[in-house]
Request: fold
Amino acid sequence: MGDEHTFSAVMDPSITLKHSNDNKITQFLSTAEAARMLGLSTTLVQTLVDQGELKGWKTRGGHRRISLESILEYQSASRSTMGSNVKSVAKPRVTVVLENPQLMAQLIASNAAWKFPVEVTFFDSVTEALLELSSKRPDMLVVEMSMPRVQQVKTLQALENFNNRGRSPLSVVLVTEEPALLSPNATVLPSSIQVVSGPMSSIWMHAYLTGVVASCQI
Reply:
């Protein structure tokens, strides 16, 4: 809707054009045009100009002319604020990876019964889960590592490399019974990756999701 209004405003011959010193054309709208474009009342638009939220000037007749550029900037800032508010009330997303089909079926059923305000998605392989991240990034990733030790180490390295490539690291919890990975002398990991003692179970998952909900309420 904003783009449609912007286009019509730019093409409106009633808009005043003012040449600046660097020969660039600055476009100005009347108060009424700006109000229509922003979906606000003319009184509120005048207030935004007085507060410096919108940039404008007055004609000799006392009519306001408001910079189109400042209107577009105000629209962009408003959309960003709205997006932040939506994110703050959205359910946290948790991706769970486990290779045991029986345990997966059990946790899916348990999660449905618990009704936590958390969106939980299950995968049976880390590779599949990482591919999904390109289209829908979760807030947290939980991986049960029940494969042989060599594969667990490779999984750990793959997740560490994935986090090092991204601007914002993914919060990862690796659940394992492998003593070497749980040892205090194990390789120091980034703060975004935690290795905890397993095995994965309904009790463990319930406690984890309880913690997720509690942290989101702080």
Remarks:
- The first strand starts at residue 16 and ends at 19.
- The chain has a mean pLDDT of 75.
- The two ends are 36 Å apart (CA to CA).
